[in-house]
Design goal:
single chain, 261 residues, alpha/beta, 7-stranded mixed sheet
Length: 261
């Protein structure tokens, strides 16, 4: 992926913020339980910054757990949607490469579906700067359950239609060491790794709107993306005649405690 294409995909969400907010999956309660376990402290009362917060799907869950959370989001469209949906949660503009946060100011930094948009050579030192000693960095992604045949079939169709090597996110590398190396090539952070499986049942059209809100679809153009979604709707209705899709996810979670003095 070229740098310009990566940037285009990163900014593409601003054109589809409402679609993203309405159709993207959330995260299971077990994820937050596991973050607390690995971070070694409860979320209630913790000072948390949710980076690349988007429309606030993860931010709202952290807030509901009692965290004192601030959202950090670079995109205009996503930030506007966030403010409409979560008027009671503060949001500031910025990104993980240059955090608009004071040194030693937060107990927990979270990146839900957003760490892969950062430059880790800049984002890792920034995370260590703003985290208090003993604070934690938590990164997670809803990834595809690759042992579910209809899901792998859909991913293969996406890869073929959009002429990409794989429709599987980069985080789906083999082994925790590979995941940690992708998250921090410098090796400065010592990540603990967990996988949490969960699922949701949604109408076929919600599922299609969900996958259509991903950057690969958003940058492809309406005609090219629409052709895939039309044919995929036909295939899904053959697989799920009642019109309800069970989306199954493996949440890939990495948590590192800041040991910096």
């Amino acid at each position: 992926m070229t740098a310009s294409f990566h940037t285009s995909r990163a900014h593409s969400f601003n054109t589809a913020a409402a679609q993203y907010a309405a159709n993207r999956p959330s995260y299971p309660p077990a994820l937050l339980d596991t973050i607390e376990e690995l971070a070694g402290r409860p979320l209630a009362g913790a000072r948390v910054a949710d980076i690349g917060a988007g429309t606030g799907i993860a931010t709202a869950l952290l807030h509901a757990r009692g965290a004192e959370v601030v959202a950090v989001e670079p995109g205009n469209g996503m930030a506007e949607q966030f403010r409409r949906t979560h008027p009671g949660i503060p949001i500031v503009r910025g990104d993980g490469n240059d955090l608009p946060l004071l040194t030693d100011s937060v107990d927990l930094l979270t990146y839900a579906q957003s760490w892969h948009w950062t430059d880790t050579a800049r984002a890792v030192p920034e995370a260590c700067r703003v985290l208090r000693p003993g604070g934690a960095l938590a990164l997670w992604w809803n990834t595809h359950a690759l042992d579910v045949p209809w899901i792998t079939g859909q991913l293969d169709r996406i890869a073929e239609h959009f002429e990409v090597d794989s429709a599987h996110p980069a985080v789906e590398a083999n082994g925790n060491g590979a995941r940690s190396a992708l998250a921090d090539p410098s090796g400065r952070l010592d990540f603990a790794h967990r996988v949490i499986r969960w699922s949701r049942h949604v109408p076929v059209d919600t599922h299609l709107a969900n996958i259509g809100s991903h950057s690969l679809f958003l940058v492809a153009g309406e005609e090219h993306a629409g052709a895939f979604l039309t044919e995929e709707r036909r295939i899904l209705l053959e697989l799920f005649p009642d019109g309800t899709v069970e989306e199954t996810y493996d949440v890939e979670l990495l948590v590192a405690v800041n040991a910096s003095p």
